[in-house]
Amino acid sequence: MRERAAAPLHAWDLTPKQAIALQKELARAVVRSDRFGPGGRRAIGSVAGVDAAFADRGRTIRAAAVLLDYPGLVPVERVLVERPVAFPYVPGLLSFREVPALLEALDRLHARPDLILCDGHGYAHPRRFGLACHLGLWLDVPAIGVAKSRLTGRYEEPGPAKGDLAWLRAGSGARPGARIGAVLRTRERVKPVYVSAGHRVSLRTAVALTLACTARYRLPEPTRLADKLSKTARTS
Fold first, then answer.
1. Residue 50, strand partner residues
2. What residue ranges do the domains of the chain occupy?
3. Which DSSP state fits 115?
4. Which ranges in 77-220 belong to alpha helices (H)?
């Protein structure tokens, strides 16, 4: 991938305790406003979807990156990376398990995407630093988290039509908390997805772009294709 960041954000050889402390530190650097391209002026011409699956009883990760043009959503390139898993499964620390392999997959793309859609959370995370934040910040590329299930927060069920949404809010008490994401219906009368800003994207824009990337299925086309690739382990 072109224009790769010159220096890494941090080392990956961390304990879970160190990883939690790092999440809290890096969360302060996340940008939750719309900044696309240099100076925020470039239009979106491509989008990459990323996802990962595990094999060999969790010992091997299969990280997939699929590049599509935008807004046509025609697949341009597919990359699959397999490597040993180096970080244990710990709730809330998924990015330390998946991001190294996802970075490798994205790095093998011939072109840098203008936007990344991640199968996972962004700001809707207990420490406001989910996988989409981590990946977007590392590459300094706009990123959005589109997850299949809730990790944190509370919400009321959105309406049944495509495009209906409910705000995902922090906390669990009676008083409304701050918005941390959106529970979005991407297909009529089908389970919603959980959208949150990752990096250099506002929540409202994240919702709009998720809908723009969704065709006939529940999942946006970029992450749907990445999910399929990671599970079938075929690039053709």
1. 65, 118
2. 30-232
3. E
4. 94-107, 131-139, 203-212
Copy the structure tokens of residue 174: 């009676």
Q: Are strands 46-55 and 115-118 parallel, antiparallel or unpaired?
A: parallel
Cis ω before 71 (30° cut-off from 0):
yes
Token pair for residue 122?
A: 């962004």
Indicate left, alpha or beta for 127 from its phi (over 0: left) and psi (-120 to 50: alpha).
alpha
Which is it for the CA torsion 223, 39, 137, 80, positive or negative?
positive
Residue identified by tokens 């840098």 is 112
Q: What is the pLDDT of residues 64-115, one digit of tens each?
A: 999 999 999 999 999 999 999 999 999 999 999 999 999 999 999 999 999 9
Position 127 confidence tier, pLDDT thresholds 50, 70, 90:
very high
pLDDT of 199-235, one tens digit each?
A: 999 999 999 999 999 999 999 999 999 999 999 855 4
Nearest-angstrom CA–CA distance, 149 and 67: 24
Rg of the Cα atoms in the chain? 17
Query: 50-59 b/e with 16+ CB inside 10 Å = b?
Result: bbbbeeeeee
For 30-232, give the CATH class: alpha beta
How far CA 136 is from CA of 35, 57, 163, 197, in Å, comes to 12, 29, 25, 10
Residue 215 phi/psi, 5-degree rounding, is -105, -105
Strand (E) positions, the chain?
46-55, 60-69, 75-84, 115-118, 143-147, 165-169, 179-184, 193-199
Strands 143-147, 115-118: pairing kind: parallel
